[in-house]
Amino acid sequence: MSKNPSDNDFTVKVANVNGTGSASANTLLMKAFFRMGIPVAGKNYFPSNIQGLPTWYEIRVSHDGYICRSGRVDVLVAMNAETYRKDLKDVAPGGYLIYDSTWPRSQQLHREDITVLGVPLARMCNERFTKTRERVLMKNIAYVGVLAALLEIDTGVVRQLLQDSFAGKPHLLDSNQAAFDLGFACAKEHFSCPLPFRARALDRTAGHVMIDGNTTAALGALFAGATVAAWYPITPSTSVMDAFKRFAERYRRDPETGRLNVAIIQAEDELAAIGMVLGAGWNGARSFTPTSGPGISLMNEFLGYGYFTEIPAVLIDVQRCGPSTGMPTRTQQADIMACAYASHGDTRHVLLFPANPEEAFYLSAAAFDLAERLQTPVIVLTDLDIGMNDWMCRDLKWDPAYQPDRGKVMPAEQLEKIEKFHRYLDADKDGIAWRTLPGVHPKGAYFTRGSGHNMYGAYTEDAKEYQAVVDRLRCKWDTAKELVPAPEVDYTDGCRTGIISVGSCDGAVREARDRLAGAGVRTNYLRVKAFPFGRQVQDFLDAHDRVYVVEQNRDAQLRGLLLLELNADPTKLIPVLHYDGLPITAADVIGKIDQGMARGEAA
Amino acid sequence: MSFIAKPKVSHPGLPRNALGLTLRDYEGGMSTLCAGCGHDSITAALVQAAFELSIPPHRMAKLSGIGCSSKTPAYFASASHGFNSVHGRMASVATGANAANGQLHYIGVSGDGDTLSIGLGQFCHAVRRNLNMLYVLENNGVYGLTKGQFSASADVGSKAKKGEVNQQPPIDPCQLALSIGCTFVARSFSGDKDQLVPLLKAGLSHRGFAMVDVISPCVTFNDHEGSTKSYDFTRKHFHAAIYADYVPPATEIRSRQAAGSVREVTMHDGSRLLLHKVGADYDPSDRVAAFEYLSRRQSEGQVVTGLLFIDEGKPDMHEVQNLATEPLNTMGYANLNPGQKALDAIQARFR
Ligand SMILES: Cc1ncc(C[n+]2csc(CCOP(=O)(O)OP(=O)(O)O)c2C)c(N)n1
Ligand code: SF4
Q1: CB-count burial class (<10 Å; 0-12, 13-18, 19+) for B317
Q2: How much is the average pLDDT of A329-340?
């Protein structure tokens, strides 16, 4: 079967009103493509309020498996009269706009270069359904029916999806199926189906799930064996704890006693959340807190405390748009600096950067091992795009042989044998001292203090003693370089142009590189997965004449961190920045690299 | 915190507790607080209480915030883990630690600045959660460590060392604790060890949040005329509502005077509190009456002391959350790992 240029390569966007129940319709639509075996990605643009404001859902169908935002719209379903003008503008030439023609708007919705299709969605549903709520909700399912006819979506797949969703609720199943059929029949009758954009069954989604990164981060914490979780609600990290709670109820409750083996504490604020996490970490429990930028700001003093007193803790920072309250429901990667050096004094923190939900699972789990191994707070930096959008990713696997790395915790038997325990002695010369847990053995007692302490753990204001401790922390930082995950590198010798990116930029960079390569421009690629940066990042910088640093913030924070931590000529690191709150596209990357090249920045 | 190691010479004749330990085994480093600071008397009372209760020192966890008062954990029980957290946020650390292992004795020591200003929120929420801990508030009406500013417990009209007069109404930690559901509220005076020790013992044995507000004069910044937290003032206006005796679980009940002025409260661990009523009609099981009594006496310039309120019937944080009885920090991974099958089942919903 030869590939028609528009088969399985288009973007559908639905404009709606927040609170009208379009989420399940959009999921239904996206999952239909997914179950047809076609790579697909969904992005939700929603306002920071509960009801009434405009919301958009964008589904990219990509034969080639590109999952970043496409940056174009081929088919737009305009369900929100307030945004008609904008929605009309967004459609790419040659595209389609579908609107609810119950209220005729053909004059208003006119453009020479696109096709406007009116479907009387409200009228059809008002005639078919009696309950007011149902009439509103079913309009959404009806447009899925319209799209199914126009895009040749497999109706059997949709029927099965509806059955899976409403198993045990026959009444809902019936009305959903009826609404779908209404839309489908109407489109078949009035339009010439299919459009030039079509879905064609493929086999590229087997072994994959459609999942969001907050769910997978929660799974990472669950599988790593976290037993204390404390948080204060904040968008976009709230659903990490929602998911964790759900899983804990199912998998952490003793069926006989009904007791939970995880403490989930809704703290009074982030100051308390991080305090609880540190208290639990100090006491030997694996503990974590999900949060976002404003929460990180509040946690600063305790983060410095955790660093200096060397207490394991895991934070999952789902970054949103800053500064300040910023745009809570928009995405950014602008907490990099704030997290790397959070708190006053010479403080630095281990950061992990997942690129997608799959990595959010593995890196969140790995964070617990690293935190205990290194005895320090570890911050997993995801973002709203990863955390709240549905991504297609490979099935998650859990190594059956996994055992938590609890790091250097001295057990009672060992304490029994030694003469005296000293908390901050660098016995193994890797910068990591042994610790003990309260209550284990009389010889294990020590004092945890954020004030100056010496290598024995005693209070000190002695210049040399204090300095010995902070120098050891520096040595521990070097050890961390060996322990954190290595960057992902795609490197061919001889190519002198490099791209470095981080986290959710990955999809856009991959697509951009393919397209650049198609135009004869070769690039090498390195994606950092952790801070501190190891040798490989330095080598990559050294090996290139020009390195484009792609990230989603205004101030080139990753680039700044590279310059602060590694040796590089600043003129050779060219920032590629995207920071409007929407996820970055390949076009954003290419556009800026093209500009750079035009200025002769690339070798 | 700063301390000087104390020489450990144990006199063979020292009395021993049920564990065979002496008072010295419950001591800590030498205090570096000002000579005569009320906080040091409280330290001595804590040492006495833990010794008399025969708590294994390493099974205690001592936590504090920042302030002179918060240095206290360094001065008792050197064989137990200590935690000086950041200013005002010991309560959250204690909450997390307690969640990780509910089987230790948690002793928090804080100041009025630490608790009632920067830490007010955390204090209230630890009370709300009925966290199982003893929370000692060393209350001197000033910021000692930052040299004498008024704290939120300073009374209106009380004078600072340099003569400044406080204009803001105080927050009374006992009234506050009562109003937000605290299950054990007591007040004492650092200069009255006879009253303080049984209260600390009862607080340590109480399952739930036991707050003991101890008026503890700061001899350097708040022990002058015009201060309502000075030794002199407190001695003069001290009004005991109830005296409490503490009877450990193993002790036989010897013949006791029948009712009348004595009331008995049985604690969760089987220990008993004998309450000798001093205030005319004081009932420490009636939250509303206790609140009213405190307010009335306070408006008359009296500092009411003793066990002000106790409720042994409320579940603590662990019970409310239905947490495993086994400590979470030692739970084997086999119990925590849902396994690949579960992961597959979860993922099936995402296809
Ligand atoms: C975040 C922060 N702000 C301010 C301080 C300075 N500080 C240290 S102790 C203290 C007040 C202590 O008062 P209190 O708790 O009443 O204890 P006292 O010294 O009187 O016993 C303050 C404000 C600090 N350590 N941390
Ligand atoms: S300044 Fe006051 S509170 Fe601090 S140690 Fe001296 S007497 Fe005690």
Answers
A1: buried
A2: 98
What residues in B contact A400, CB-CB < 8 Å? 339-340
DSSP assignment letter at A195: P
pLDDT tens sequence across B86-136: 999 999 999 999 999 999 999 999 999 999 999 999 999 999 999 999 999
| Site from A160, A283, A403 to mutate, B interface, most B CB atoms within 10 angstroms | A283
ipTM: 0.95
Using CA coordinates, name the residue in chain B closest to A453: B1
Q: Which residues of B touch A33 (CB under 8 A)?
A: none
Residues 6+ apart with CB under 8 A from A397: B340, B343
- In this structure, how many other beta carbons lie within 10 angstroms of the beta carbon of residue A351? 25
Token pair 């420490």: residue: B284
Bridge-based pairing of strands B242-247 and B262-266 is: unpaired
First to last CA, chain B: 56
Which residues does chain A have within 8 Å of residue B101's beta carbon, measured at their own beta carbons?
283-285, 438-439
CA A139 to chain centre: 31
Q: Which ligand is nearest to the CA of B113?
A: 1
Pairing label, strands B209-215, B184-189: parallel
Pairing of strands B303-310, B184-189: antiparallel
Q: Could you tell me the CA-to-CA distances from A241 to A102, A161, A298, A353, B343 in Å, in that order?
A: 42, 27, 19, 19, 17
User: Model confidence over A99-157: pLDDT tens digits?
Assistant: 999 988 878 889 999 999 999 999 999 999 999 999 999 999 999 999 999 999 999 99
The preferred substitution site among B3, B221, B222 for testing ligand 2, maximizing ligand atoms within 8 Å of CB, is B221
Please state the rounded mean pLDDT for residues A192-217.
96
Whether residue B351 lies within 8 A of chain A, CB to CB, comes out as: yes
Q: Is B180 on the interface with A (CB under 8 A)?
A: no
Q: How far is B158 from chain A (nearest CA, A)?
A: 32
- What's the pLDDT at A603? 44
**Residue ranges of A 290-319 with Cβ closer than 8 A to chain B:** 301-302, 305
**Ligand 1, atom 12: nearest CA belongs to which residue?**
B67
* All residues at 6 or more sequence positions from A292 whose CB lies less than 8 Å from its CB, including other chains: A234, A235, A236, A237, A317, A318, A319, A320, A328, A335
Opening angle at CA A360, ends A357 and A363, nearest 5: 150
Q: How far is A188 from chain B (nearest CA, A)?
A: 28
What average pLDDT does this structure show over A408-426? 97
For residue B350, the distance in angstroms to the closest alpha carbon of chain A comes to: 5
Longest dimension (CA), chain B: 76
CA dist A452 and A470 (Å) reads: 10
Q: How many whole angstroms from B85 Cα to the centroid of ligand 1? A: 12
pLDDT in tens, B253-263: 554 544 456 88
- Judged against a pLDDT cut of 80, whether residue A1 lies above it is answered with no
Adjacent-strand bridge partners of A409: A435
What single-letter amino acid sits at B33?
L
Number of the ligand closest to the Cα of B116: 1
Q: Does pLDDT of B316 surpass 60?
A: yes
Q: Which residue has the higher pLDDT, B13 or A70?
A: A70
The span from the first CA to the last CA of chain A, in angstroms, equals: 41
A448 touching chain B per CB within 8 A: yes
CA nearest B311: which of B285, B291, B288?
A: B285
Whether residue B196 contacts residue B243, with contact meaning beta carbons closer than 8 Å, is answered with no
Backbone Cα Rg of chain B: 21
Give the pLDDT score at B173: 98
Lining ligand 2 with CB less than 6 A are B 33-34, 37, 39, 68, 140, 144, 218-221
Which residue's alpha carbon is at the smallest distance from atom 2 of ligand 2? Answer: B218
Q: How far apart are CA A288 and CA A264, in angstroms?
A: 10
Mean pLDDT for B5-21 is 80
Residue A272 in contact with partner chain B when CB distance is under 8 A: yes
Mean pLDDT across B296-315: 93
